Structures are given as C-alpha cells and as structure tokens.
Amino acid sequence: MADQFYARRNKRPRIPSEAERAKLEEFIDSIHYSDKYCDNENEYRHVHIPKGMLKAIPKDYFDPEKGTLKLLWEEEWRGLGITQSLGWEHYEVHEPEPHILLFKYVLHHPLSNCDPSTIHIINS
C-alpha cells in the first residue's frame, strides 16, 4: 500500500520555479481552508484551491492518466502557496472536484491540537 501511495507522487519534491510561482500569486489569497475534524488516528482538513489555479500549476504536478493532481510533497504544496503548520500530509485528491486537496495530520503528533470538545469527531 505504501508503494502505491508513493507512486502517486513525484519521485522527489519539485519546488515551483520563480516564473511558475509568479503565475500562482494571484490565486493564493483565494485558497480556502476547511475546519479541522478528526478520528481516532488523524486530524483532517481539506483545502480548496481556486479552479483557475489548476491551470497555473506546473504540468508535472498532475497524474497524466487521471488528469488530477498527484499527491504533493510538503515542499510542493507549500510552493503552490498552501500554508499550514508543520506535519500536514497531502493524502488524497477529491477526483470529482480536483481543486479540493485532502490533508491529514497524525493525531498523536506533539503539535496536534485536535480537541474533541471543539473539533468534529468522526466515528470509526
């Protein structure tokens, strides 16, 4: 399973060039971050990038078979302008809506702040 997971990424992180980053700048303020939610293992959130931003993202960030974004390394999603605390992992793309990226954070990570009294808990 882990091999399949990593096959959905670039072999190594590729940070956008300055020219590529300049094409993304106009969209960065329109990135939307969902509230966090968690289960017994992870904290989750989804990030909506503007649909127009997909056209400005480097082509090698996309899966040529599916036409959706690959799973991005932290350096890559940060290079696109997505900002979150350390430890978040891009683990899935919502294929029906490829502008929605799904992230998870290990619940027992020392920096986790998943508080059952303030964050929706998913029954597992």
Summarize the structure.
Helices cover 19% and strands 20% of the residues. Strands 1, 2, 3, 4, 5 and 6 form a 6-stranded mixed beta sheet that branches.
What does this structure look like?
Keywords: Cell cycle, Cell division. GO terms for molecular function: cyclin-dependent protein serine/threonine kinase regulator activity; protein kinase activator activity. It comes from Glutinoglossum americanum. The chain is of the alpha+beta class. The chain has a single domain (about 1-120), classed as Cyclin-dependent kinase, regulatory subunit (Cyclin-Dependent Kinase Subunit Type 2, 2-Layer Sandwich), CATH 3.30.170.10. It is built from 3 helices and 6 strands. The chain has helices at about 1-5, 20-30, 75-80; strands at about 30-35, 35-40, 40-50, 90-95, 100-105, 120. Strands 1, 2, 3, 4, 5 and 6 form a 6-stranded mixed sheet that branches. β2 and β3 form a beta hairpin. The longest helix is centred in the N-terminal third of the chain and has 11 residues, at about 20-30. The radius of gyration is 15 Å and the shape is globular.
